[in-house]
Amino acid sequence: MVFLSPVKTFYTIYKKRTAEGYQSIPYMVALSSSMMLLYYGMLKTNANLIVGISCFGCAIEIIYLILYIVYAPKRDKVFTVKWIILFNLGGYCLIMVATNLFRERSKRVTVMGWVCAVNSVAVSASPLGIMRRVIRTKSVEYMPFLLSFFLTLCSTMWFFYGLFLQDLYVAFPNVLGFLLGTAQMVIYVIYKNANKGVEKTEKMQKGDMEGSVGDINPCFPDHEQEIKEITIVIAEKPVESDEMKA
Fold first, then answer.
1. Does 194 or 20 have the greater pLDDT score?
2. Alpha-carbon dihedral of residues 169, 30, 119, 1, nearest 10 degrees?
3. What is the 3-state secondary structure (H, E, C) of 193-231?
4. How many CB atoms neighbour CB 168 within 10 A?
5. Which residues of 193-205 are buried (b: 16+ CB within 10 A; e: fewer)?
């Protein structure tokens, strides 16, 4: 559900034909986390659920990033493509090479466990920039509530799943995910009506300005009588007679 929660956001991007104002960082971090968990699940025994969810997550995040690149402004496109190559592809290949230097499978599992834990923390922390923007602009336009809700729910489920498997690398990072997801929902509730208040104030100010203009506008009926009472006095210059000229 966490992977599907941004569908509404990308549908909005598709309708507007622009991704301006949205960030690609959360989706790049989520793709990296899914890739790392996929490799971790392949190394670890009895982790078919992790492998299945990670495969689905990789596919969904790739679709999101493709849509973002298609509709993003040029500057954001270049930034996103550059970091996908460096962070997602380059970092993933580097970690695979580094873990394969360990001959014992258990050590590779341990190393990848720590890498996945760090990535899980990064996924949880990636919306911090959006949270700061919401607080600064007092607008929740770019922070969907469903994404925050399902992030919190998923973090809770992964925490208990990690405890069930006695896998600390899965359980503990999701505590931070739960806390940050809860914080996002609280911020959303605080600022969801802030824009409505601003718009109402602007409408009232606009109405006051229109009323003030009406008071001084001479074209209104109240001033028609005053206009009719205005008289124009033309002073005629006396014409000199021929006798006077002589």
1. 20
2. -20
3. CHHHHHHHHHHHHHHHHHHHHHHHCCCCHHHHHHHHCCC
4. 12
5. eeeeeeeeeeeee
In angstroms, rounded to a whole number, what is the distance separating the alpha carbons of residues 155 and 152?
A: 5
Fill in the DSSP letter of residue 141: T
Radius of gyration (C-alpha) of the chain in whole angstroms: 33
- List, for residues 152-211, the tens digit of each pLDDT value: 777 787 788 778 777 777 777 778 778 888 888 888 888 887 665 555 545 555 555 555
The first and second tokens of residue 151, run together, are: 């992030």
141 contacts 21 by C-beta, under 8 angstroms? yes
100: nearest Cα among 114, 115, 111, 89: 111
Q: CB of 95 within 8 A of CB of 35?
A: no
| Cα–Cα distance measured from residue 242 to residue 150, given in angstroms and rounded to the nearest whole number | 104
